[in-house]
Amino acid sequence: MPRLIAPDVSYHASWLEGSAEFDGAHRDGAGAEDWPLEDEDDQSFLRFVDALVNDAKPESPRKPGYVPCTYLWIVDGDTFLGSLAIRHELNDFLLTRVGTSVTA
After folding, report:
1. What is the spatial distance between Cα 95 and Cα 45, in angstroms, rounded to a whole number?
2. Is the pLDDT of residue 101 over 50?
3. pLDDT over 70 (residue 57)
4. Whole-angstrom distance, CA of residue 40 vs CA of residue 38
5. What angle do the packed helices 12-20 and 42-54 form, to 10 degrees?
């Protein structure tokens, strides 16, 4: 049964397999924009997973314009299926260009 978990290095091989299916395309919600993860370097993947987990903390360093975000992975057994990104706040860019605003 699929479940949500915090990013975990034990899914490295399965994450690489899923990532390969995107064939270099942008993966919204994966948090992988600045990470060269197509190689199989365990230390790079460990730093990536740590960065995803730490991004939920307001005090963590991040690029200008980025907001704290909780990343969750969808897994089934030992297979990575996908990911979710839950932003803790919205800024003007996210409200006007990324998110949807509802007006009354």
Report:
1. 31
2. no
3. yes
4. 6
5. 90
